């Protein structure tokens, strides 16, 4: 039975969300395909999403960024952890090579761990990078501490990425020059069907009351200015974090019988940071999106440009977000018309599968 080794970054859930549609589409092209998920993303993430046989191997694949909540990157800690990671690079590489030899996969797919690409090459296995960002681009935004050779780390990352036989750049994405062969594919998104009527009934919304889904990705948001937002009439806020027990305007998403994807397809407004998965799905659904920027993450600008070209997006400043000054921005987002410019169709999952399938079907190496 053919086996694909899928190395997935554990930095949030966005990379896993990109990989799943590709694997599902690939399963329709390659009979009896199995996948080994080499990742620290919880197995529960894949349970209701992945349709081909799978198993997990919870081994760290990369560092990503060290964050204090979803909006603040701890630059010094990020560099420190990369320094430690690369200080044990040879041991990590050998561990992956040995595990690949034991599993004997037909192909290594990486989104976006460069360790797996380097190991695959050493193990003599074909490798495909699935990328909307690369970690060398992310680190290039940050100044390394004087005690750490940031340039050497970035160069090592680029060398590992360069080992890939093929890279599939998922649009929208920044410019990438590290890969020998790069093919652009469409956005990857699999929006859920709307459950708006069921959500309205479950929440017992008043006439004209709008729903706002607040979700900042796989890294939890610790708090919000609840006291101020309680006075913001006309809205029901669905929050994926902890809420005060006395709140009348906030509802925990964990208390709802709907998945996050279902909620995204059913609410009036989404509030988030510009992260790949939620932003591309919001564009596909034409859901108004209020976003709070970090201004120091490599794929943020291409995503924001894509949103404003094809979707309905309004920026909320960090200051206004933290102080609860949301009213004018929410109103502006709700009043935005659906754009006449057709978005890029979210065909990336099928496109990637069609490009990967020949590695299984014609014995390509």
Give a verbal description of the structure:
The chain is an alpha/beta fold. Helix content is 39%, strand content 17%. The protein contains 16 helices and 15 strands. It has helices spanning 14-29, 44-47, 75-87, 89-103, 114-123, 135-139, 150-161, 196-203, 226-229, 260-264, 276-285, 300-310, 318-323, 327-335, 348-356, 358-361, and strands at 3-8, 34-38, 54-57, 67-68, 72-73, 107-111, 127-131, 166-170, 182-185, 210-214, 235-239, 250-252, 269-272, 289-291, 313-315. The strands form 3 sheets. Strands 3-2-1-6-7-8-9 form a 7-stranded parallel β-sheet, with helices on both faces. A 6-stranded parallel β-sheet has the order 12-11-10-13-14-15, with helices on both faces. Strands 4-5 form a two-stranded antiparallel ribbon. Helix 11 runs parallel beside helix 12 (300-310). The chain is globular, with a radius of gyration of 21 Å.
What count of helical segments does DSSP give? 16
What would you call the structural class?
alpha/beta
The CATH architecture of the largest domain is: 3-Layer(aba) Sandwich
CATH class of the largest domain: Alpha Beta
Terminal Cα span: 17 Å
Largest sheet, if any?
A: 7 strands, parallel
- Taken as a percent bin, the fraction of beta residues is 15-25%
**Shape verdict:** globular
How many β-strand runs?
15
Number of structural domains: 2
CATH topology of the largest domain: Rossmann fold
Give the C-alpha Rg: 21 Å
Low-confidence stretches: none
Helix content: 25-40%
CATH superfamily of the largest domain: Glycogen Phosphorylase B
- pLDDT averaged over residues: 94
Strand order in the sheet with the most strands: 3-2-1-6-7-8-9
